């Protein structure tokens, strides 16, 4: 079986102002780094509004569409901008997450990686935030639960920033376990251990500034992995942000490329144990272009190894 790679050229049409870290070149570097890998390449569809309505109200979806500028930029948050291509990109990003779930649950791929932008894990119910428009990972979880009828889905978010949007969208969802590690303190400020959700299905793992791969591995081995195994998800969704890398300019963790390979391999091992290896991974952050490309490649290579 294979690893699916979902992406679309529209995700390169989401342009941000000069100097903005979440830029087109991120995805270009990633796609170049993945070029030689053996992957089932799938064109990401536009998400249906019915899918988006699983996580956002109609008024919010309309507001995002209406805010799209004909040219130039529309600013909708302190650091979130729309260009003329942003709405299509956001619909492709969300559509990739939905399609990836369909492929993996339908047995057409063992696992999948969505090379998409804008990212999604900061987007809240009716608020765009932190470069994010639609909650791609939370949508993947809801689609797996509500459309495919799964009973238990886990989201693991190793982006250096707290996945506040995913946490909020799944806060009262007893069928979803949300595990998110983040540098603390760091923007957006949430993600304390006492944030556990309505049904105690949220696990926040703060990591100290300056800490590295050893601290991360210990935290995942003692806190995240036992919780994940005990929950026995039928699908694991990864919010794959690569900004905990030591070269990343937006944060102060010191993970090496090898640490991203390690965490991916461990998640694949658990997926093999509990859910026939079913993993859907979606791109979140990562702002040093070379580190991002290398870490993403290491992540996808582990998915490929696990799919064999
Ligand atoms: Zn991030």
TrEMBL record:
InterPro entries xref list: HDACs, His_deacetylse_dom, His_deacetylse_dom_sf, Ureohydrolase_dom_sf
Protein name: Histone deacetylase family protein
GO-annotated molecular function: histone deacetylase activity
Family membership noted in the UniProt record: Belongs to the histone deacetylase family.
Organism per entry: Ruegeria atlantica
Highest taxon in the source lineage: Bacteria
Cross-referenced PANTHER family: HISTONE DEACETYLASE HDAC1, HISTONE DEACETYLASE HDAC1-RELATED
Biological process (GO), any one: epigenetic regulation of gene expression
Residue stretches making up the Histone deacetylase domain: 20-303
SUPFAM superfamilies linked to this entry: Arginase/deacetylase
